[in-house]
Amino acid sequence: MNTQEFIALEKKWGATNYKPLDVVLERGDGIWVWDVDGNRYMDCLSAYSAVNQGHCHPKILQTMQEQAAKLTLTSRAFRNDQLGLFYKELCELTKSHIALPMNSGAEAVESCIKAVRKWGYKVKGVPEGQAEIIVCENNFHGRTVTIVGFSTEAQYRDGYAPFTPGFKVIPYGDAQALEDAITPNTVGFLVEPIQGEAGIIVPPPGYLKDVRRICTERNVVLMTDEIQTGLGRTGKLLAEEHDGVEADMTMIGKALSGGFYPVSAVLSNTEVLGVFQPGDHGSTFGGNPLACAVARTALRVLVEEGMIENAARQGEYLMGCLERIESPHIKEVRGKGLLIGVELHPEAGGARQYCEALMKRGLLCKETHQNVIRIAPPLVIKKDEVDWAMEQFEAVLA
Ligand SMILES: *Cc1c(COP(=O)(O)O)cnc(C)c1O
User: Is the distance from the beta carbon of residue 142 to the nearest atom of ligand 1 less than 6 Å?
Assistant: First the structure.
């Protein structure tokens, strides 16, 4: 079957909630992927940062195969020999007290919201049903009804009401707005260290530090959504480290499995997660031995193979090169590590056409919103490969 035939199948049988580029991939290795017609592409999206470790990383693959042949799922009705080790290694690496394993990113966010609300009632003493959580404009935390209910993106909400109450929206990057929005019933503040889906929006320097101080002073739980920014993407294990802060709760997902399997987690620095008693919350697949084994290796290779440092080094180099492109179309280049956004002027005609032109030159990336090209290759990219990518960006943008 060829590309057009695969696309026709999707069109006939699938829900059309995505509009992918017309490339049908069948194989991946590191930063490279191949389509069904045998063409090779550099992957500069990394499945929205889920394959930070590169496609089909051999060590994660080996773990996946070995564990899949041994034991995949026990449910949490019984214990398994991977979960405890996963907890220990994850918490030691991220300097967390305890963790909660889930599957998708959205589930981690939902779990965090549940824990923080319960903490508000049981510990902070907020009157039942009155807990408020503050979130930011242009946030992206997933696609459940509760989460899209506090999105400010009209399309994400359209047609899905009624929504869960108890959320208040403030501008992103504005610590004073947080200070002003807090009431005695505020239990938590949910924020992305860099807003990924909003178009790689980097807040002003010191923002997270101010936010940390305000949350501590006002007894509000600081929740950082590091599902996209975490696990090395920005050149640190967690993006919050750039500001030298530790959130009370941190959500990770995506690259936690290196792209092999949906694995997410809520990390807790305080005892907020400790409010859960047996039966309060759960997931059939959360904490299963296959997920835990895969995640353990995915974390190990991230550290052992120097991917975080490489993201910092190659990210700085790539960003410098992008800033030097002389192009009438580029409005701004921004980001941290290997999470980079190139914003085009509105007159450039939209980022999509540039992504399509890049695809023809063997480089895959995806527009976010109208005018931003997101560049986020796997963290294993080397300098000469960055140079090759730059040739393609220059050819298309200059
Ligand atoms: C991708 C993402 C999510 C949602 O993760 P899913 O696995 O798609 O549910 C949540 N928050 C952020 C910041 C993300 O980038």
Answer: yes
Alpha carbons 95 and 116: distance in angstroms, whole number: 20
- For the chain, which domains are there? 3-57+306-397 (3.90.1150.10), 59-304 (3.40.640.10)
Which DSSP symbol is given to 122?
Answer: I
Query: How far is residue 372's CA from residue 252's CA, in Å, rounded to a whole number?
Result: 24
Helices (H), the chain: 3-13, 46-49, 58-70, 83-94, 105-119, 145-149, 154-157, 175-181, 207-218, 289-304, 307-324, 351-360, 383-397
196 lines ligand 1 (CB under 6 A): yes
| Cis check: omega of the bond before 162, within 30 degrees of 0 | yes
pLDDT digits (tens, 9 = 90+) for 184-225: 999 999 999 999 999 999 999 999 999 999 999 999 999 999
CB 193 within 8 A of CB 178: no
- Cα(15)–Cα(326) distance, integer angstroms: 41
Q: Is 254 a catalytic residue?
A: yes
Question: What token pair was written down for 318?
Answer: 């790539």
pTM (2 d.p.): 0.98
